[in-house]
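Objective 1b: paired records.
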Amino acid sequence: MDQLFYLKECSSTNDEVSKFLLYENSDFIGVSTFNQTKGRGQYGNTWAAAAGKNVAYTLAVKAKNILLTDFIFNYYTAVVIRDYLANLTDKDVKIKWPNDMILKNKKIVGILIEKKKINQNNYFIIGAGFNILQDQFEEISHAGSLLTQTGQVFDLEDFVFNLHEYLSEKLKTIPSEQDIIDHFNLHLFRKDEISVFEIGKERQNGIIRNADEKGELWIELEKDGLKPFYHKEIKLLY
């Protein structure tokens, strides 16, 4: 059973979704808004979005139905959302490790996945902010939207309805762990390209080689050779 609820305005769909997990057999419950006032990103970062131009969406999935490690589930969610956007736009959407969506060098989606126990059930709470119609981003030089990157105008209601259907369906039949890792690496942003990285306060050239099953990103650095990194240990400058 999967349902999608719409809120005219809320602080964070990730926070609001627990109020809707009161139904029996609620394996997939989605909540969306076009006006999120206090969106959260990875590791306490904020996710700001213009009202009426973007989509904040959260899907709560019962963890008992997901036979994947947290890292692989994170990868799979990124792959599914990437595929949805690529199919929708007919463009080559990339995944910036661990799970931002990049289109023509601009970030168009940020994803935050949390694990919570609600009403005696453990849930994966998949939260995502989609930049759809916003065309001004002020100081956020790396941000873009589907509008700025494709020139296409999408209907927000249709977008979130189809997203919910697509994501829920893909989470009912999950491929093998190796298939997920392979698919993730196939679409990894700046893989096998020379990039600039920031480690602490030092900058160094390097090449992203692959992401592994433990959630690490392997980078071949100019000075230090091939090394694995967890999120926040290294920053890709682009």
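Objective 1b, second protein:
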Amino acid sequence: MRTNRRAEQSRISMRAVVALATAVVAAVAVTVFVQNDQGEASAGPVAANAPYQPNSDHDSGNAGHAASGRTDAAEGQAASGPQPVTEVDKTFLVAVRQAGLWEIPAGKLAQTRASSEQVKRAGLHLLDGHSKLDQLVREDARILGVDLPDEATPEQQEWVTNLENAKGAEFDRMFANVLRASHGKIFATIGEVRAATQNDLIRRHSRQANQTVLDHMEVLEDTGLVDGSTFADVEKAVQPK
């Protein structure tokens, strides 16, 4: 009986030794894996649910490579030389500048001569939109070396004179139709410029001009004063030649 009990105790002891040895081997393997993966062993035990702590040297290296890639791309673009500025691009910038030179005064006139609140509102949109576009066009023209005029075209100056000589309902109708016709024609031109230009500044400028002109067309249409003949005139002007 004692012999059997001793044999049983011996077998239990052997199983404990085996289990302990297995645990030691597993611990050594985990330590080696952690050292190989992170470059250094942890100074103490890590909880199973502890958040991942990135290796600062490794992550800094990745950030450095990413920043270097962005820098290389920027240098590559700079090395490609100045982008072309076509005659169409130049004409576009001149047209934007001249639009502001007469539409800003027209927007101001609407605040004192219009009898319709919708027309006054449209005038405010013109003041705001073309003030911003005028600043942008002068900046882009300076960068691209394009000379801009300081006066609107003779036709545009005549429109302003006609508005100055009108008031009330007459002013409202003239304002809505003349400006809606002008915006409709330049709106089509903006699309052509944006579709063909190879210059990033002109692309940016045409996008901003497109948004501004679209807003102005909509507020002018909201006056309810734009005649069908005005739309027909624009349609005729923008038809493909």
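Residues 16-79 have pLDDT under 50 and may be disordered. Helices lie at 2-38, 56-79, 87-113, 117-144, 154-164, 168-196, 200-221, 228-238.
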